[in-house]
Amino acid sequence: MISWRKHYKQTLIAIGLLLSTSASIYGQDGDPKNGEKLFKANCTACHALDKQVIGPPLKGVVDRVKTEGGVGKDWLHKWIKDNKALRASGDKYANEIFEKYNKTEMLVFPNLSEKDIDDILAYTTNPPAPEEKKTPEATAGTEANAASPADKTTTNIVIISLLAIAGLLVWILIKLRQLVKLGQSEDLAGLNETRVKSFSEIYQKYHLIGKGLIAILALLATYGIWNWIMWIGVYKGYKPDQPIYFSHKIHAGENKIDCQLCHSSAKYGKVSEIPSMNVCMNCHRTISEYNGKYMEPGKDKAFYDEQIQKIYAATGWDPQKAQYTGKTQPVEWTRIHNMPDFVYFNHSQHVVAGEQAIINSFNKKNPNNKIDVVCKACHGKIDTMNVVQMANDFTMGWCIECHRTTEVDMNNGYNKEYFKNLHDKLKKQYPKDGGKITVDAIGGLECGKCHY
Prior knowledge:
Elements: H1 2-25, H2 32-42, H3 61-69, H4 73-88, H5 92-100, H6 114-125, H7 136-146, H8 148-183, H9 186-197, H10 199-205, H11 207-230, H12 248-254, H13 259-262, H14 265-268, H15 277-284, H16 301-315, E1 317-318, E2 323-324, H17 347-353, H18 355-365, H19 375-379, H20 396-405, H21 413-418, H22 423-429, H23 432-435, H24 447-450
Antiparallel strand pairs: 1-2
Helix pairs in contact: 2-6, 4-5, 15-16, 17-18
């Protein structure tokens, strides 16, 4: 009986040690996989596992707070739930952390359960190894290697065949040249000399036709030169490389960022301006690497991460310390759209006053290529462009055609009041399309509107 009890106690001790070891491996009853999901949903705006973003890196945070502050998981639960209340209670370590990270207020997470927090802490202690994903390039490379012996054999056969054909053609040319020399008699040589010398006689006989052809060629040349001159300064399709690669497809297309978030003065100012680098930093203070699904062909994650680092260098941002160094590097952007000095163009007039009229006119003329933002009428579908290009001619004729075809909304409050006395007169003066009034009817073709 005593021996049985002894072995029973040893068995219980062994099972207890096994369970405690397992608990320590898996973050003390936490689920790292679920913790990863919760971490990405709640924490990645300010934290990463292995580097400082706005807040400190969180890998091994359970051990770190124990070493630094002598606190455990219970303290982390209180901190995550409501760090402000923890600081207000006078907790020394909580206030030290707050001071250390520039008094940056951390969000509170009362919605997270105790188990949720345990899962997150388990993830920071033992993050699951990332699953290896086969890229299309790697798959293609594997297939290429598998098929390489057959491909090499086929290539060798093709090369040998081409060389044989080339040799046969050379041999035929040599033989033909020999035959021509043998068949060229003295009479044939004399006839050839006569034909060469008689060109002047042919010209004398058909000189009127020749002069007519010369006149036609001169007219065509004049038209060509004139047409070339008229297109000087028209750069449709122009898309220069920029010092920092910026994909509108990623920002405006994939992430649905509104144009006016960056180009804020386009709506209320004459020019749309180039956004300052501080506008970029509104987002990229916390986005230090590219984790999007979309990648332009020929580009990889390392390329996009490098461009983000260029933004940091330009603004003097230190991502490790999460603060500005004061050392900035101005970015020399290459201008794409540039109106001549003698042309007046006001963005706000088109974006605000003419917004709906321009969208309606464009969609009516392009039923298979409709737009939802007024900017696209002139600049093209920017949200599909990796590299911005000049989408239209931007010539005087192009602007006039737009003014002649864009219908003015005479029923909106401003136009109805402003053109109150001219409304009926304009309808009689411009009866086309059932009395529809276009921009040219209200001064859209007056020289002084666009030229000083």
